[in-house]
Specification:
The chain is 79% helix and 0% strand. With 415 residues, the chain is mainly alpha-helical. It has a single domain, classed as Growth Hormone, Chain: A (Up-down Bundle). The longest helix has 29 residues.
């Protein structure tokens, strides 16, 4: 009995340390994120276009890239809107528009119509990211932000893991209902925000245009963000990291389809990504939160590059694909909270939306170029070239994170 009591006490302390002390508004934002991610049609879009509609891998990559192009534009626009008109109005408007464009994509027919609808989904669907990230930074004090971003990422992957498994089963009977479910969850997300999440934008006036910001720049404009050299170095590495992760959303599905594996198998394999994040994100974040940021990000790049590189040896075995997903998921879990917390640390208070927008722009640029590059490589150079390039990119990103960590430790005049 004493041993059991001690175990319960330790479990209670661990839970309180991981989940306690965060504002109520943050948890409602967390719930809205979870609801939104229960619709996961984008992850099955490449498989829908190739297996269901008969398009080539190159065209599927192009469509995914158009979503990325739309999201790249949306990231910057969404960041500016979050600072100018507020986080909450921006979030509500783009979620309603996302639901509408998702339905349009599901009913589109013909190459041009599908491509146009995909661009609109990217344009609306990703404009919410800077607002959500800025809200978290507004609501949560600095020491707790890495934990808050990890919890938000946890919600994303709980929803993603559930949606991937269920969507694979639904897709086996037809893909069109997936678009309607995705639209419905987006509207439910907007309803939660409307009822429970207040505006968080700072009310005090922004710094004058000539005043220095916390990150070393001046003023809160987009130009200032792009002149912030440390932040832009981080953004460049985020782009490289995103190029790797995009292969899991598009190229991996096509590769598994060509290996003779079904949509159910892909759903189960990619669902491991979300399942591992659900089970391990909080322990991994606690394990790494006191470690050097450069080391944490370096390890994340090595794991992610290795995981995707090992896909070249998966053959036609679903368990082998599952193993590779497990390896790069560990890298993803290590990278996400560390990178997002660093972004908020470098952001000036009244430019948080813009900083988060530029960071989202890096992910969106990766989602624009990554699927197209993966599809072209798969069609014209073979699967070994795709996964070999991912391994190389992981090594390059690791070297970049190592250099950035040293630069962050250097005195301001020597950075």
């Amino acid at each position: 009995m004493p041993a059991q009591a001690s175990l319960l006490v330790r479990l209670h302390r661990s839970t309180a340390d991981s989940l306690g002390g965060l504002p109520e508004a943050f948890w409602w934002l967390w719930v809205s994120t979870l609801v939104n991610r229960l619709g996961g049609v984008v992850s099955f879009l490449a498989l829908y276009l190739t297996a269901e509609r008969g398009f080539s891998a190159s065209y599927a990559g192009l469509v995914a890239s158009l979503i990325g192009l739309g999201s790249a534009i949306a990231a910057l626009v969404g960041g500016v809107l979050a600072d100018r008109i507020g986080r909450r109005p921006t979030l509500l408007a783009v979620q309603v528009l996302t639901a509408l464009t998702t339905v349009v994509l599901g009913s589109a027919d013909g190459r041009t119509a599908i491509a146009t609808a995909a661009f609109l989904v990217g344009l609306t669907g990703y404009a919410s990211r800077p607002a959500i990230s800025a809200m978290i930074a507004d609501l949560v004090p600095g020491p707790d932000r890495a934990r808050a971003f990890a919890l938000n990422y946890w919600a994303i992957n709980i929803g993603f893991g559930v949606s991937a498994a269920l969507a694979g089963l639904i897709a086996a009977r037809g893909y069109r209902p997936l678009f309607l479910v995705d639209a419905l969850t987006t509207l439910l997300c907007a309803a939660v925000v409307f009822v429970k999440v207040p505006e968080t934008r700072p009310t005090t006036p922004p710094l004058p245009a000539a005043a220095p910001t916390a990150s070393g720049g001046v003023g809160p404009g987009l130009a200032t963000v792009f002149r912030d050299r440390r932040f832009m170095a981080l953004t460049t590495l985020t782009f490289a990291f995103g190029l790797m992760l995009q292969q899991g959303n598009t190229t991996l599905a096509v590769d598994m389809g060509r290996a003779g594996l079904t949509s159910v198998a892909y759903g189960a394999v990619i669902g491991i990504n979300g399942l591992l994040v659900v089970l391990l994100q909080i322990p991994v974040t606690r394990l790494t939160r006191d470690q050097h940021r450069g080391t944490v990000l370096l390890v994340s790049a090595l794991l992610t590059g290795a995981g995707f590189g090992l896909t070249a040896f998966a053959g036609s075995s679903a368990p082998r694909y599952a193993l590779t997903v497990g390896v790069w998921t560990l890298g993803e879990m290590v990278q996400a909270p560390a990178s997002m917390s660093l972004v908020s640390e470098l952001s000036a208070t009244h430019a948080r939306g813009r900083y988060q927008g530029v960071n989202s722009f890096a992910w969106s640029a990766a989602s624009f170029l990554g699927p197209a590059a993966g599809g072209l490589l798969l069609d014209h150079a073979g699967r070994e070239a795709v996964w070999g390039c991912c391994a190389l990119l992981g090594l390059l990103a690791a070297a970049g994170y190592l250099a950035l960590g040293r630069r962050m430790d250097a005195p301001p005049g020597q950075a």
